[in-house]
Structure formats: structure tokens, C-alpha cells
Amino acid sequence: MTDRPQGLQIKVKGIVQGVGFRPFVYGLATQLHLTGWVRNSSSGVDILLNGPNEALQAFLDQLNTHPPALAKIDLITSSPFPAQNLSNFTILPSLVEDGQFVPISPDMSICADCQRELFDPSNHRFRYPFINCTNCGPRFSIIQDIPYDRPKTTMSGFKMCPVCEKEYHDPLNRRFHAQPIACDECGPQIWFEANGTRLADREEALQTARQWLRAGKIIAIKGIGGFHLACDASNDAAVIELRSRKKRSDKAFALMAFSREIIQNYCEVSPAEADFLNSPQHPIVLLEAKPNAALSPNAAPGQASLGFMLPYTPLHLLLLEPAADFPEVFVMTSGNSSEEPVAYTDADALHRLAGIADGFLMNNRPIHMRVDDSVFRIIENKPYPIRRSRGYAPDAVNLPLSVQPTLACGAELKNTFCLTRDQYAFISHHISDLENYETLASFESGIEHFKQLFRIDPQLIVADLHPDYLSTKYAQELALRTSLPLIQVQHQHAHLASCLADAGWSSLEPVIGLTFDGTGLGTDGVIWGGEVLIGGYAGFERRFHLSEAPLPGGEAAIRHPARIALAYLSHFGLE
Ligand SMILES: [Zn+2]
Ligand SMILES: [Zn+2]
């Protein structure tokens, strides 16, 4: 009785496209001798299965417990379906449904399989700087629109060669429908240029960049979500020169080394930190510096910790590949002059970084969306984001409550914005400080891009209480123009509410919220800082707070917290 074929239809929602989901389903179904089909739709993945009940259950078990590495399943629904008389399992063309959306995978660092192939002389993609597969490579930074198919990415201009095309269409290949699939024959290429002259192509370009780096020069490198400025981190003169050209007086530079073993020569790396450095996101992790490490003292002046990341693209791996007399740690800082957003288009980089970089390692894969490196600190084995961007954006926070489509415009410094739909809160990549025209333009275009990608038509606008933030002014103008309601939220209350959402707090019961983070305009018109709030999503009461003290230099004190400490000491008559 139980062996009689039964039908089952399954719907999977979440990050299930562009992550090898259909080949996974295809492989699993054929392995279990199930017939039926799988297809992408505008809202997720649809599966229809026919077979004995036991095999159907085994399929569901595997789907729940061992989905593809980059998949992020939010919901699996299944229901019985009349058994169909099908002879095999197939992958059907995508179904386009109006107004629906699928969460998009962030950009992911090169996977172990691709890394092996990159350094395997017998492989078709040996030393190819843009090798990728369904488990790794660019996503968010190259997607122009949904559904996520190659024609709607910046890879649309590259026609696949027969080798790539065959892999792309083979359901059992790990590059099946890998939209950025490419090889040396058909894909993007690198070149090296300086002063407007193209000096070298392909492998020779890579070797030229390495020689220039070894010689202490500053190189602009086009990566996955923007340009980096790189130099030998052990070369003090090069680091000082970069600092002065970038007009970045004392902020620490991010560093990159080929392997964890090398990083351990410079920093203490706990097992949790090592795992996190090597996670699929490959963020910058702040690590405790070892004394007397052979680094330029100007890489991170006065800092007890260093921000290290591992190479996260094949290009970075090739560029940093260890060799005799080759430096082992590189400054890999954002490609901008201080305060400006990171350059990500070729023309912009060549223009804005001309006075900073001696040479440019370029490539012709366009970046559609700028994404900065993410920065984390590990505290008691748990990761805490300091900047949540590459590898994380545009991942959604799953809200404990369903909310109406909302645009939240964020604050002034280290801005991110957020758009919500159903139970998803799509938090943007790091936009940076909204203080100049370029950053504001990138804030505005980012909002438009998110609205388009996730098919969100906001019905409510939210802004900070502070009237002078550019994000508040933007929200007010937008509300006027669209007649949408605008809610202005007190800064520390917003911190409290976002912590609750992040923790999945679904109750309307009040909590005690300690928000000691920068400054924000209070409901009494005074700047607030360290607050103990009692409240929840809808409201709060200010129970305790640090006593008020003057902010020496006004806004400047926010950037130099030591000034605030001094003000408190003097306020209480201490010296
Ligand atoms: Zn891969
Ligand atoms: Zn190819």
C-alpha cells in the first residue's frame, strides 16, 4: 500500500536561486528514483515529485537538513498531489510571476573547489581570475534586475564558449546555471595600466601588478564590489605615501594576506576567529595584533587590533600568491579619497584615484552595485558586525512581525537604509557617511535599486528625528512628493527596536534597552548619548541616562570620542 506512487508538490522560499538549488534537487530526486520536475519561479523554487512515500520523506529530510551551501531557506511547504505518470525527472523553464520576488544571494568568496581548480595546471580554468561556480562568486554586485538570469547581470555582454555553455546546461555539473560562469576563452579579462597607457594583459598584467607592489608602489585593484588601493604593508614609505595621498590621517587600513597561517604571524587568531576569516563571506576580522609584528607602524597607528581578511576572489589569490622575496601582507583599503564613496566604475576610478594610485589592475566585468568589505569583531566566539556589507547585503533579516512596505532611511554617519516587504527587512550595504553629494547620490540610487530588485513599493517612510541629517531631509522631501506618511523615530529608540527585530522578539512587552552608541537627537531637543530605555517597538520611556555634558567641537566630538570623555571629566571637575 505504502509503495504505491504518490505525488507531492513542494514550494521552497528564501535564497534558493543562483546557489545550485535546481541541480541539487535534480541530483537528489534522481538518486531516490523519483520522477517529476523542478523550476524557478518569481517567488522561489517549485518542485513536483512522484514516488513511494518513503522516498518522498527521504527527499524532504535531505532538503531540510542538507540544502546547498549558499541556500538560505526561509520556508518549505509541501502538500499531496495526484500522482503523475512521468518517466523521469526534469528541470523546467523558469516561471515569471508579476510582482513576486526572490531574495538575492550576496557576493560570496571563492569556494574550495574553485580554488583547487584555479591552481590546477590541468584544469580548463587554471589561473583564470574570474573562476566561479554555483557555490561562489559575484551575485549582488552584478545583478541588474530579477529574475536572476545572465541577461539581467553585468555578465550579459560575455557570450559563453562551448565549454562553459555545456557546463551551464548540464544539471549534474557544479556550474549548472551559474550565471557568472566564464573562462579564459569567453569571460572577463584583466589588464594593467598606468597614466592612461595599457601596459600589460592577462597573466602579464598580474605579474606587472605584483612587481609594482613588490617595488613599493600603490596599485588600484578592481575587485568584486569596487576598487581597493593596495600596497606592501611592511613597506613603511609606501604606507605613509598611501596615507598622505588618500588624506586619511590616522584611521587603520584593512589588510589582506594569502592564508590564515600568515595572518597568525601578525595577530592572535582564535579558532572562532579563524573560522570566521574563512567563512563563505570572508569579511575583515579585527584581531589582536602581536607585538613587534613586521608591519609598517603606519598601517594601523595606535591600534591594538588589526583588520585582516583572506583573499576572497580568484584575482586576490593570484595577486597574493606567496613567492620568494614577495611581501606577505598587503594594505587593501577602500578605493577612495577620505570621506568619498568607494569607486566602482572604471571611469570613476581612473579619474578619482589618478592622484593616489601609481597603476591600475583593471578588468572588464562591470560592477553594478558598489559593495564595501564587511568588518566584524569576534567577542566570546560570537561575531559582531561593525560594518555589514559584502557577503551579507542584501540578505534580509526575517522580522518577527509582518509590516507594511516601509522605507527606513537611516542615520547620518555610517548610513544604511532598509526596505521591508512581508516579513523581510532588506538592509542595504554600507553606504557610508551622508555628508557629500557623491554619497547622497549613492544612497538614493541604492534605494531605487533595492525597490526594483525586491519589487517593493513603500507605503510608509521612516527617518531619524534629527532634522539636519541628509537622510531625514531626503525622507521629508520624498514624503512631500509622494504624500506618503512619514514617521520620525528617536535615534536610540531605533537602536532598541532594531535590536529587538534582530533577536526575533515578537512580543509587545516592554524590555530594558541599554543603548550606548554615538549621539542622537532626543525628544526633548537635546542630544542624547548613553541611554537606558524601557520600551519596545511602538514606544519607550527614557528611564536613566548619562548626565548631559557639553560636546566640545560639536559634531567633531562624535568622530573623536576622546573629546567627549574629556568633557565628562571636566564636567565633574576631574582632570
Ligand atoms: Zn566555486
Ligand atoms: Zn568559457
From TrEMBL:
Chain ranges of the YrdC-like domain: 203-391
One of the protein's GO biological processes: protein maturation
GO molecular-function term, one example from the UniProt record: double-stranded RNA binding
EC number of this enzyme: 6.2.-.-
Gene3D superfamilies found in the cross-reference section: 3.30.110.120, 3.30.420.360, 3.30.420.40, 3.90.870.50
Biochemical pathway: Protein modification; [NiFe] hydrogenase maturation
Residues annotated as domain Acylphosphatase-like: 7-93
Keywords: Ligase, Metal-binding, Transferase, Zinc, Zinc-finger
Class of the enzyme per the UniProt entry, highest EC level: ligase
Signal peptide: none
Catalytic activity entry: C-terminal L-cysteinyl-[HypE protein] + carbamoyl phosphate + ATP + H2O = C-terminal S-carboxamide-L-cysteinyl-[HypE protein] + AMP + phosphate + diphosphate + H(+)
UniProt-listed PANTHER family: CARBAMOYLTRANSFERASE, CARBAMOYLTRANSFERASE HYPF
Family to which this protein belongs: Belongs to the carbamoyltransferase HypF family.
Name of this protein: Carbamoyltransferase HypF
Name of the gene encoding the protein in the UniProt record: hypF_15
